Amino acid sequence: MGQQTRIVLIDDDQDACELLKMQLEDTGRIDVTYTTRSDEALSIIRRELPDLAILDINMPGIHGVEIGSALAAEPSTSAIPILYLSGMVTPEEAKNLGQGEGESPLISKGSPVEELIAAIDNLTTS
């Protein structure tokens, strides 16, 4: 088996984190660390230096986009790809948002897990 893709997931919904962790790790090739606290996000990502950060956009405290901006501004984390999650948009709306050149993709929480896995693969494979 090849090296696993290491992901840090930041989402304030505990149930969503546990479900996504289970679904992604069931692939046998993705390892997920998560927190539901936005105030812990940066320290966890700095410590783990994952292959990808998945950030919920609408979080109490620090929003996912703010976390993404902070990661991009730090030399040690600026190369970590970011995938944004949102429950505020439909899967169809998400396909039309955040897809510009150099922008991090956006996935709706209502999208099938296969779409999330495909986005992870796209961002983490050369």
Question: Your description of this structure?
Answer:
- The protein has 126 residues and is an alpha/beta fold.
- It has one domain (5-124): Rossmann fold, CATH 3.40.50.
- It has helices at residues 14-25, 38-48, 64-73, 91-96, 113-124, and strands spanning 5-10, 30-35, 52-56, 82-86, 106-108.
- It has a 5-stranded parallel beta sheet with strand order 2-1-3-4-5, sandwiched between helices.
- Helix 3 links the parallel strand 3 (52-56) and strand 4 (82-86).
- Helix 2 (38-48) runs parallel beside helix 3.
- The longest helix has 12 residues, at 14-25.
- The protein starts with a strand and ends with a helix.
Keywords, please?
Rossmann fold; 5-stranded parallel sheet
Describe the secondary-structure layout.
Layout: E1 5-10, H1 14-25, E2 30-35, H2 38-48, E3 52-56, H3 64-73, E4 82-86, H4 91-96, E5 106-108, H5 113-124
Helix pairs in contact: 2-3
